């Protein structure tokens, strides 16, 4: 008995792993290790393909891309490939987090205005409501087949992992060299693939096992890139597929955030395909589905054939063709049908391709391409499947096969092929022409939201205007080009508003004045000022003051700071002399200005005055008078003309009142300064200078000086601060020598001083005429452009190929029905080049509910209905003095006072009479005073209006306490 005791103990079983049930997943996959997946018979390496730009590229560039992809596929002979195209919801939370972290020095919240949290939350809600997603393309490549020993080691892994860990990983170790070769092969230009990360593989498995179910906004990040067999239950548990016999869809039921969700999925397959001319006529055929308004999933199983396999098949096929031809010609003395002759010719062509030229590009393959669409019910899924069929007709046949359950399983990595039906054969060039990774790629993911792409792929467009300067060490020069009504002002206002909220500082020169409405927004008003230069203090545009004096601290990082600072001061003085010379030359009549002697006497006087910042043009006139007294007769003639121009009201902006302080010195740091010149009469764009009137010549010179005044703020602030300068009507600057110098200076200093400079112009050619502009420009926005020459120049600015059909596309931006008489307030379209290789057509979006007040402020479309609604002087102000106001019309106190003053002066019902002095002013065509309505004294010395055309006299809006030419209004 004692001897039997040990035997009973040895035979007795203890509770442990031996009694646990074995888990076997209902999918073919058995484990995941990094980017490698293993089934019972195969090991595949998974890669994520980089997005490939297709829009706005020449046919030669597209052909190069197709050839590069084909060459990489040709190197994969004898391997199975699995292409999976899926979508991932745009990471709104990730963008919001990056945008919030990137908003350095943002504005503090203002009571009654939209706060930062409300702004950021509104942007996120609007983005999530658009339901846009990113296209993701994965490529699985067979590394090797698995032997019986490999499968035995896998089954024994729980024991071997403890006893001999190295043996359990021997298979993967043996594949290291081959996997490294594949990593290098697919990383080249064409596929531009990188090994999939653990999160990528998890996302692919989730989207494949839960085919058709809504994608989660977020997915838990994995800390380990290895999944054992038992871990795969995370992808399969809670998801089931059902199919009724002969049903056109498969029903997928799963859980999403503890709720049961059901979708019907229709799986289609690519059938017969006519000859496609890619890229000359057709787009990549896998990209067609991106145009649909719902997500589409792709799964392609491809086998790249070896040359010897194809050669043997070709010989057999050629033998069949020759036998059939001989049957016609020898046996029946008949001509063979042309279809048979074409088959024979095609076989010979393929045989020649395989025996000559680049083997990689002539490799053959066969495969199966499946498409999956989902709907909330079967009717919606079938309807969407029909839309897929329609979008591919007539060149590509899309079939809707039976056995939907098995076809749906094909989308899961590691699952076997459902059926060999609908096999497609072709060359690697044909397969590469599908370009599965072609998509819209423009902008970044940390900047402001501009809108969305509106080409084949629809996705959000974010843009950080300071990414180029701070990260990529590039220029901050930006061109905004488009004809009248193309939306340039709206786009500029959107960029200025959103970047201001994120902490930037802006100075905007808007001659026409609509952007001044930004300074009255409650959240911006305490940090903004609006200066109407035509009503500002005398000397605000003194040419000697608009050029900033260099600061010594800006040159601290130079090799020789003192020498660099002195050199820059000398350059600034030379710029002032050249600027005042150009301005004074522009003030004299054109016939006098083009005389060589005029330039000579002005140059002498300007040099004598010097280029110090404390000078003014009056000193130049005094110097000309002195030269005239010394015998220079022409100097006196030029001085007389300048004195005459000096008497003009607008010319007073050039000549300061020496008894006052500098009008540009502000008492506080403003985040937004808008300079306007309402009422200024500019020449017609493109008109020669000799046709300009005196008033138009003065307006161009004032615009030039105002542009220089705008850039002064760059050099007065810390060079590291994010600053912006926006200049409108810049096509006139290109016609003035110092205007070209200004554009060139802003372009070259934008990176050093962290500036984003926006140049708005109606014609791209005006900017291209500035030397070096095309090479220095970073980002470009091109709106609707109709003229053929202007279209070509706009494409040059975009660095897009010309002469390949893109010119006509610029004329179709922002389309509008011809017979629609409703206000044209549709969002405008632009072609956007982000400066980093991305070029796409985008749609500007400011339709979020939290930005309604911004959209209304930037709306420059005229509308007579706003008069009665807002209570501004309108319908009542247009009536005759004795005409009663219409019922419901609004008449404010200022309008009534003006009407009473007119009646008192002229008598009710009588025509207005003019004094002799007023008649003399009207006879002078050089004076245009009707735009200055604020100077009208009303009601016997009553206080003037607030100057913004709204509200009664003496009232002020919250944003009206701002500096106006150095004095607080």
Can you characterise this structure?
The structure is a single chain. This protein has 969 residues and is of the alpha+beta class. The chain contains 35 helices and 27 strands. The strands form 3 sheets. Strands 1, 2, 3, 4, 5, 6, 7, 8, 9, 10, 11, 12, 13 and 14 form a 14-stranded antiparallel beta sheet that branches. Helix 23 packs across helix 24 (617-629) and helix 26 (694-716) packs parallel to helix 27 (737-749). This is ATP-binding protein. Residues 958-969 have a biased composition (Basic and acidic residues).
By DSSP, the count of extended strands is: 27
Major β-sheet annotation: 14 strands, antiparallel
What is the percentage of strand-forming residues? 15-25%
Helix segment tally: 35
Which structural class do you get from the secondary structure elements? alpha+beta
Q: What would you call the quaternary organization?
A: single chain
The coarse silhouette is elongated
How many angstroms separate the termini?
Answer: 115 Å
Please describe the structure with a list of short key phrases separated by commas or semicolons.
ATP-binding, P-loop_NTPase, disordered C terminus, 969 residues, 14-stranded antiparallel β-sheet, 27 strands, elongated, alpha+beta, ATP binding, eleven-stranded mixed β-sheet, nucleotide-binding, 35 helices
């Amino acid at each position: 008995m004692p001897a039997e005791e040990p035997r009973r103990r040895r035979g007795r079983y203890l509770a442990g792993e031996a009694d646990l049930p074995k888990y076997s997943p209902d999918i073919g996959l058995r484990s995941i290790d990094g980017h490698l997946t293993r089934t019972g018979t195969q090991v595949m390496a998974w890669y994520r393909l980089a997005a490939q730009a297709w829009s706005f590229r020449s046919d030669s560039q597209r052909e190069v891309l197709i050839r590069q992809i084909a060459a990489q596929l040709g190197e994969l002979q004898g391997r199975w490939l699995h292409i999976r195209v899926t979508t991932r919801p745009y990471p709104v939370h990730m963008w919001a987090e990056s945008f919030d972290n990137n908003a350095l020095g943002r504005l503090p919240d203002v009571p009654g205005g939209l706060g930062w949290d409300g702004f950021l939350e509104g942007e996120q809600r609007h983005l999530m409501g658009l339901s846009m997603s990113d296209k993701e393309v994965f490529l699985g490549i067979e590394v090797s087949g698995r032997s019986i020993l490999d499968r035995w080691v896998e089954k024994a892994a729980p024991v071997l992992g403890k006893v001999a860990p190295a043996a359990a990983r021997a298979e993967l170790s043996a594949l290291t060299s081959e996997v490294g070769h594949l990593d290098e092969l697919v990383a080249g230009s064409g596929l531009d693939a990188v090994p999939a990360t653990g999160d990528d593989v998890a996302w692919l498995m989730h989207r494949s096992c839960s085919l058709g179910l809504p994608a989660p906004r977020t997915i838990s990040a994995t800390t380990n890139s290895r999944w054992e067999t038992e871990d795969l239950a995370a992808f399969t548990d809670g998801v089931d597929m059902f199919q009724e016999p002969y049903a056109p869809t498969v029903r997928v039921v799963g859980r999403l955030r503890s709720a049961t969700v059901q979708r019907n999925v229709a799986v289609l397959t690519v059938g017969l395909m006519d000859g496609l001319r890619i890229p000359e006529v057709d787009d990549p055929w896998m990209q067609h589905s991106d145009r649909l308004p719902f997500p589409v999933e792709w799964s392609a199983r491809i086998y790249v054939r070896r040359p010897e396999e194809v050669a043997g098949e070709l010989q057999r096929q050629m033998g069949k063709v020759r036998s059939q031809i001989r049957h016609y010609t020898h046996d029946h003395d008949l001509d063979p049908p042309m279809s048979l002759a074409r088959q024979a010719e095609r076989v010979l062509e393929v045989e020649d391709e395989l025996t000559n030229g680049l083997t990689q590009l002539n490799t053959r393959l066969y495969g199966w391409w499946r498409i999956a669409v989902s709907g909330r019910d079967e009717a919606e899924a079938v309807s969407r499947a029909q839309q897929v069929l329609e979008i591919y007709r007539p060149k590509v046949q899309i079939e809707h096969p039976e056995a939907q359950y098995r076809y749906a399983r094909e989308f899961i990595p590691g699952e076997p092929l459902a059926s060999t039906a609908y096999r497609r054969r072709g060359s690697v060039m044909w397969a590469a022409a599908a370009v599965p990774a072609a998509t819209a790629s423009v902008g970044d993911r940390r900047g402001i939201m501009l809108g969305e792409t509106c080409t084949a792929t629809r996705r959000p467009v974010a843009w950080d205007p300071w990414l180029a300067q701070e990260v990529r060490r590039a220029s901050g020069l930006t061109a905004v080009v488009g004809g009248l009504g193309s939306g340039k002002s709206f786009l500029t206002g959107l960029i200025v508003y959103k970047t201001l909220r994120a902490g930037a500082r802006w100075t905007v020169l808007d001659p026409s004045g609509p952007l001044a409405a930004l300074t009255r927004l409650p959240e911006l008003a305490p940090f903004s000022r609006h200066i109407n230069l035509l009503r500002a203090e005398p000397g605000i545009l003194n040419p000697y003051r608009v050029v900033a004096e260099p600061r010594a601290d800006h040159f601290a990082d130079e090799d020789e700071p003192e020498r660099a600072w002195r050199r820059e001061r000398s350059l600034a003085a030379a710029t002032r002399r050249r600027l005042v010379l150009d301005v004074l030359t522009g003030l004299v009549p054109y016939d006098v200005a083009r005389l060589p002697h005029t330039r000579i006497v002005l140059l002498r006087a300007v040099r004598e005055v010097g280029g110090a910042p404390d000078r003014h043009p009056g000193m130049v006139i005094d110097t000309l008078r002195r030269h005239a007294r010394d015998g220079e007769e022409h100097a006196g003639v030029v001085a007389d003309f300048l004195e005459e121009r000096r008497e003009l009201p607008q010319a007073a902006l050039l000549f300061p009142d020496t008894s006052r302080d500098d009008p540009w010195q502000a008492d506080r740091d403003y985040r937004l300064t808008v300079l306007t010149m309402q009422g200024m009469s500019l020449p017609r764009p493109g008109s020669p200078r000799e046709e300009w009137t005196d008033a138009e010549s003065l307006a161009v010179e004032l615009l030039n000086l105002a542009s220089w005044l705008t850039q002064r703020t760059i050099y007065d602030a810390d060079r590291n601060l994010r600053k912006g300068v926006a200049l409108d009507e810049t096509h006139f600057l290109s016609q003035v020598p110092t205007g070209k110098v200004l554009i060139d200076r802003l372009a070259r200093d934008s990176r050093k001083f962290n500036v984003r400079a926006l140049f708005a112009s109606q014609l791209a050619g005006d900017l291209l005429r500035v030397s070096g502009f095309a090479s220095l420009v970073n980002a470009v926005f091109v709106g609707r452009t109709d003229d053929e020459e202007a279209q070509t120049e706009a494409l040059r600015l975009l660095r897009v190929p010309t002469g390949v059909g893109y010119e006509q596309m610029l004329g179709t931006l922002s389309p509008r029905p011809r017979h629609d008489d409703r206000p044209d307030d549709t969002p405008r379209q632009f072609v956007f080049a982000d400066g980093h290789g991305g070029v796409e057509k985008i749609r500007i979006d400011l339709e979020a509910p939290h930005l309604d007040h911004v959209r209304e402020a930037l709306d420059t479309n005229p509308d007579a209905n706003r008069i009665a609604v807002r209570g501004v002087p309108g319908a009542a102000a247009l009536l005759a003095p004795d005409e009663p106001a219409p019922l419901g019309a609004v008449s404010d106190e200022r309008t009534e006072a003006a009407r009473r003053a007119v009646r008192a002066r002229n008598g009710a019902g009588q025509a207005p009479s003019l004094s002799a002095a007023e008649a003399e002013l009207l006879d002078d065509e050089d004076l245009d005073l009707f735009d200055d309505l604020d100077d009208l004294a009303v009601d016997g010395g009553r206080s003037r209006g607030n100057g913004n055309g709204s509200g009664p006299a003496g009232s002020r809006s919250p944003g009206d306490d701002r500096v106006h030419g150095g004095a607080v209004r």
